[in-house]
């Protein structure tokens, strides 16, 4: 009878170990749920980035306004007959 009780206690300890520490434990489940949430946030950010890029591609394919805006902003291009003015602020003395 004593050996059955000992065997049951050992079995209970082994099952408790697996429940709290082993594969499929509560700690591992919490870690995996946190990783899933981080991945969902990253996916949402990438989905929004892709949406913005798709809109930009569509604008570049369909109209010259987007191409002109990009040339002006990124390359500093101007139209013929326009004057380019660059305002330079004076340097402040280091104190």
UniProtKB/TrEMBL annotation:
Gene Ontology cellular component list: cell division site; cell septum; plasma membrane
Matches recorded under InterPro entries: Cell_div_FtsB, FtsL/DivIC
Membrane topology, as annotated: Single-pass type II membrane protein
Segments on the Cytoplasmic side according to the record's topology features: 1-3
Region forming the signal peptide: none
One Pfam family hit: DivIC
Primary location: membrane
Side Periplasmic, residues: 22-95
Keyword Cell inner membrane carried by entry: yes
Subunit structure: Part of a complex composed of FtsB, FtsL and FtsQ.
Protein family per UniProt: Belongs to the FtsB family.
Function: Essential cell division protein. May link together the upstream cell division proteins, which are predominantly cytoplasmic, with the downstream cell division proteins, which are predominantly periplasmic.
Protein name: Cell division protein FtsB
Gene that encodes the chain: ftsB
